[in-house]
Amino acid sequence: MILGTGTDICSVDRVRKIEKKYRKAFLEKFLSPEEIILSEKKDFYPFIAGRFAAKEAIQKAVSLKLLNPAEITILNDENGKPFLDNLPDFLKKNSLPASARILISISHEKKYAAAMVIIEN
């Protein structure tokens, strides 16, 4: 059964402008420490835009506004598939059943990053 869905799109240029203006404060507001480390090994701005879109999509899927997006850690498995690293804590905090699964897809295309999230039980 699907409990929620969410999608979001983010401009890579917008992220670039915000990051250049606020630097470390911007990264620490939207990325977890693990994601900041991972961003250094990736195509930096598309990576950040993708994570931003994914976290917005997660918020839409659970129908709430998260106060701290840095509390969500999205990593990639050995095949590159994104997953929510802190899933058990996230499920408890948002009153979702322990059996729920959060599926995440992130795509990048030159100027944009998009993400889709499905929460199923």
Query: Stretches where pLDDT falls below 50 for ≥5 residues?
Result: none
What is the makeup of the main sheet? 3 strands, antiparallel
Number of domains: 1
Helix/strand/pairing category = alpha+beta
Mean pLDDT: 91
User: C-alpha Rg, in Å?
Assistant: 14 Å
State the name of the first-level CATH class.
Alpha Beta
What strand line-up does the widest sheet have? 1-5-4
At the third CATH level, what is the topology name? Ribosomal Protein L22, Chain A
- CATH superfamily annotation: 4'-phosphopantetheinyl transferase domain
In the CATH classification, which architecture applies? Alpha-Beta Complex
How many H/I helical runs?
5
- The total strand number stands at 5
Which features would summarize this protein structure in a list?
three-stranded antiparallel β-sheet; 5 helices; 5 strands
Fold topology:
Elements: E1 2-11, H1 12-22, H2 24-30, H3 33-39, H4 44-61, E2 74-76, E3 82-84, H5 87-93, E4 101-109, E5 112-120
Antiparallel strand pairs: 1-5, 2-3, 4-5
Care to describe what's here?
The protein is of the alpha+beta class. It has a single domain, classed as 4'-phosphopantetheinyl transferase domain (Ribosomal Protein L22, Chain A, Alpha-Beta Complex), CATH 3.90.470.20. Helices cover 41% and strands 28% of the residues. The protein contains 5 helices and 5 strands, in the order E-H-H-H-H-E-E-H-E-E. It has helices at 12-22, 24-30, 33-39, 44-61, 87-93, and strands at 2-11, 74-76, 82-84, 101-109, 112-120. A hairpin with a 2-residue loop joins strand 4 and strand 5 (112-120). The protein is globular. The N and C termini lie close together (5 Å). The mean pLDDT is 91.
